[in-house]
């Protein structure tokens, strides 16, 4: 029987540490498929964050670096400037990118650094115990906001794609989701476009991915998918927010 489906060469043969129902694995798969399709595995460098994807280097078959919390854009800047022939991407969660790393990502985008960022947004600090993140929704309960996020005290959740797209520097910024097949297909197209812009030397690119966190949300896998679709997507609308000028 002919095979119609196989594991991407860019993915290693490993059992992941991610919780059941976590969509980091889907995001990893999409990145690996795109890298294989573009034929760039031999010159790609990924940068792992502090967060649930801290061990991401175990799951890919190309070079990876580990960055300090929030500092992946700074490391990506250095690698890409020294070796512009490489394809460089950061893989960051909302606690890493939108909190301690907010200054790093904003200034990297504003400088127009020619690397790609995969930004996984699941509205909580996943690895460290489910604390409230900059993207936690209003009234959403977390371990540090057991009564729900109070916007009058801590402000509204930060919309990263909209924030970065407001910069004047040319960039490709999009928000997609990895919670259902119809969204996953669009997410892969967006990731591929982001890497293609880098290969063309065009611009900085960021792909935000709406993701789930069943463990820290206290929901089943299917309940998490429904919660994300019903609550996250209305607040974080999907689509392209910025494209470089032709």
Automatic annotation (TrEMBL):
Give GO terms for biological process.
cellular respiration; small molecule metabolic process
Asked if the keyword Oxidoreductase belongs to this entry, the reply reads yes
| InterPro entries linked | 2-oxoacid:Fd_oxidoreductase, THDP-binding, TPP_enzyme_TPP-bd
Q: Superkingdom, according to UniProt?
A: Bacteria
Q: Which UniProt keywords apply?
A: Oxidoreductase
Cell membrane found in the keyword field: no
Q: Name one Pfam family in it.
A: TPP_enzyme_C
Q: Which residues form the Thiamine pyrophosphate enzyme TPP-binding domain?
A: 59-196
Query: GO MF terms on file?
Result: oxidoreductase activity, acting on the aldehyde or oxo group of donors, iron-sulfur protein as acceptor; thiamine pyrophosphate binding
**PANTHER family in the record, alphabetically?**
2-OXOGLUTARATE OXIDOREDUCTASE SUBUNIT KORB-RELATED (PTHR48084), SUBUNIT OF PYRUVATE:FLAVODOXIN OXIDOREDUCTASE (PTHR48084:SF3)
Q: What is this protein called?
A: 2-oxoglutarate oxidoreductase
Organism for this UniProt entry: Candidatus Desulfatibia vada
